[in-house]
Amino acid sequence: MNGKRMGMATIRLERPPRVRAWAAVGGKKEKDGPLGAEFDHVFSDTMCGEKTWEQAEVHLQKVAVGMAANKCKLPVSALDMILAGDLLGQCVASSYAARGTQVPYLGLYGACSTMAESLAIGACMVDGGFAQRVCAVASSHFCTAERQYRFPLAYGGQRTPTAQWTATAAGACILTAAADDCAPVRITHVCFGKVCDLGITDANNMGAAMAPAAYDTLRTLFSDTGTYPEDYDGIFTGDLGQVGSRLLCELFSRDHIDISPVHDDCGKLLFDSKQDVHAGGSGCGCAASVLCAHLLPRLADGRMKRMILAATGALMSPTSVQQGESIPAVCHAVVLESGGKR
Amino acid sequence: MNGKRMGMATIRLERPPRVRAWAAVGGKKEKDGPLGAEFDHVFSDTMCGEKTWEQAEVHLQKVAVGMAANKCKLPVSALDMILAGDLLGQCVASSYAARGTQVPYLGLYGACSTMAESLAIGACMVDGGFAQRVCAVASSHFCTAERQYRFPLAYGGQRTPTAQWTATAAGACILTAAADDCAPVRITHVCFGKVCDLGITDANNMGAAMAPAAYDTLRTLFSDTGTYPEDYDGIFTGDLGQVGSRLLCELFSRDHIDISPVHDDCGKLLFDSKQDVHAGGSGCGCAASVLCAHLLPRLADGRMKRMILAATGALMSPTSVQQGESIPAVCHAVVLESGGKR
Q1: Of A152, B223, B329, B336, which one has the greatest count of Cβ atoms within 10 A?
Q2: b/e code B184-194 from CB counts within 10 Å (16+ = b)
Q3: Where is the signal peptide (chains A, B) (predicted)?
Q4: Do B92 and A320 touch (CB under 8 A)?
Q5: Complex ipTM
């Protein structure tokens, strides 16, 4: 061990990997939301020109990866690794998107925490010298997720007030080695989370299931690094939504810590409350696309100096919910800083 | 880049992480197979004392992780990371098994290649100094897999001759840093595979879908390291079964390379042909348990000096198969050597 591991779980990256380029791709609802103009590309058609919703989600990932690589003036085939995940059974959006790339593929499953998991593992791979250029990508699609987790869309089921709206979106980041002076953002710390389960069984209240995981990982990160919320320009959970965000602030307030001045949530940022999304956005593509459309540009141009992406995932399946299991959750965090040259 | 990356994709581990301990847990059919006596624990009851098959698979993972940690005289909570995966939608066997461990959890999906993926990422984490003690684990369960991928068991569907039998098993390895002189096995190289798809659409012929991926990764590993099949005491694919193994040998024979003297397959080793398993065993738990029950002990006592585990995964889902998609596959490889002290 060479001092990279701090405290309970946080990893300090000695030669902070750079985020060289990124791309966010979304659907029509994402375009109509507050961040719409910040996406690199939006599709007005739910099918994205494909024959099935699942193929559409594959397309979202492919476009995001292709655009991010293109910004580095690299063909996708020049990447050393793709680290990818999504919400579907057997992560098919990611596997089918990686098909044909000729790039080593690491399939991940962290539900809506996937973008942070892929960034964190990718950053370790680069810092450790195991790869020079990796792509971290995650996606979700409202229609594939509804089919996977809930009801046929044509059934027109009512959504509860605590329900969240799965983003139709993908975000991809290209990570490069510390020596890359052209990259405007770097990853300084990562923290892999533990599985937390406080007994929530309502699959339409994922914010409540995930808030304890976000609290646990952020508290660990603060403690391991000796930092406080005010040391960051922003702490972005993804995607607790309205309900989970309130619970997270409440959990911290019990420790006499007020994170509310710097906290926001990707699920709250992606959509406007007028868009009928109830408690906010969700899905692997939510944190991924908000990071790539909205947050990384602010680090790149110096509007933010240091932020945390703490993406949360609810780790249930339709089967586990039907069997009455409670919903375990996980939150992985990455600390991102402005400036590649420092 | 500091020379860890060799050739196209192979990673040389500079301070080869050790495999300190391992455990294999299985069901009744695995007990009755040729490796039955080598398992650390077998359950005669499909439910493993739980209420559902899914909970039974969770139990298999928990017992495997607990036994492996126990052999290191460590509580599970002393691990730095658990890297885990399984075949189920949203990887619930792994997530629920990690619940309550208080250990940072990295969820992976590589279908039947998962054990190699978890070993490979875990080895990078240890070699990079990001963790000191990690657990790589994978599981499958015949009944959960049939429910997930095929038909209700009570339906009694006929299985085709090329079909494989999902292992009810889990395997767990504890990886430690190179300085651990007590560990009998080390990981010297890892190779993450690309997604290969030659157009197979028959979900009952996974061996054929996966053979090209095994060929691609093994060929890359040989080329990157300048080694030949005869440089290894064994090359174990997991789980091509009878059909895929024949195809793999055929693919290599086109390059005038005969891997048959050293090649075997975890899916062929786990069961006897008299056990009505058709083309052989499969599932994340197949390669994981054959590695832990049968292969690691042979490295530990010197019966083998050097071997490759090249675990293959078919990356389709029930939805993608129903939509007529062909089956993409991936193969991740790890090179294991006898002797922690060298």
Answers
A1: B329
A2: bbbbbbbbbbb
A3: none
A4: yes
A5: 0.97
